[in-house]
Amino acid sequence: MESSASSSPDRPLLAVLRGERRDPPPVWLMRQAGRYLPEYRALRADKGGFLALCYDPASAAEVTIQPIRRFGFDGAILFSDILVIPHALGQDLTFGAGEGPRLAPPLKEATLEALQGAPQRLEPIYETVRQVAAALPPETTFLGFAGAPWTVATYMVAGEGSKDHHDARTMAYRDPAGFAAIIAAIETATIDYLSGQIAAGVHAVQIFDSWAGSLAPTEFDRWVIAPTARIVAALKVRHPDVPVIAFPKGAGGRLGDYARAVGADAIGLDEAVDPVWAHAVLPAGLPVQGNLDPIALLAGGDGLDRSVARIRQAFADRPHIFNLGHGIGQFTPIEHVERLLELVRRAA
Length: 348
What we know:
By secondary structure, the chain is α/β, with parallel strands linked by helices. Helix content is about 50%, strand content about 10%.
């Protein structure tokens, strides 16, 4: 263990999460360990299915480190999936070839009480964390993550992904007590899961609410803001020095309310957020992360250059981690990522 600040390595991303400004800003990309990398595709073809890869610590650790080895990002994000939580809560989880995830039984057809929890399913994830923590360069910040309760619940209720999250939204209106029990179960499991990642060696964690934008205002308060705030508060009791990033994709005009109520150390911004507006409405000094359009990175060229410059200018006076507004696309050219890093790493 590092015994003092003077003996700690300089981790620029971790410093920004703690409120420092850095020029140039640190950078990592959501889904940076994934299908756009030929080394990932080769490993996945050798290993087989996605879930098998997630639950094999040596392979998952290798995937986590691949983009650090290639690009030297300032942050490494744990290679896993948000649906390991419903798997640990007792739903069966499968990923079919060419299909999205499937969870059984879907909770629109079964009760939460019918599930038999299997928390041991998370043990390989903690071992992955330990292996990555031992192998990362000392300057790299290691990020753990989990899905936010609302987003995870949409999958648990429907048994699969959906465009409008109709099943979960309907249950929340028709049976708010039953839906609250599902949210509470996810919340409790997520607190323990993120705490386990921290104990195993991550430096910070991110809470992904990928479907936060699908809810009406009062439902957003109840199912997005409140559960996330409780998770953040619980983590702050257990791990007061570990930063938490909250990413409410699609929050739009509720972004300021979300940031003030949730109490996270940093807020992730999706690509639809105007960075100039975000700088104006968010609490002064609150670190932000984002928010390049993944399609701008895919397209490259002058559009990429202009987008990077605008984001950097908007957050020049605020602690900022450069990232995408969502995950990198699988067909993104490697040379566009290299160009992005060249642009971001220029001092202002």
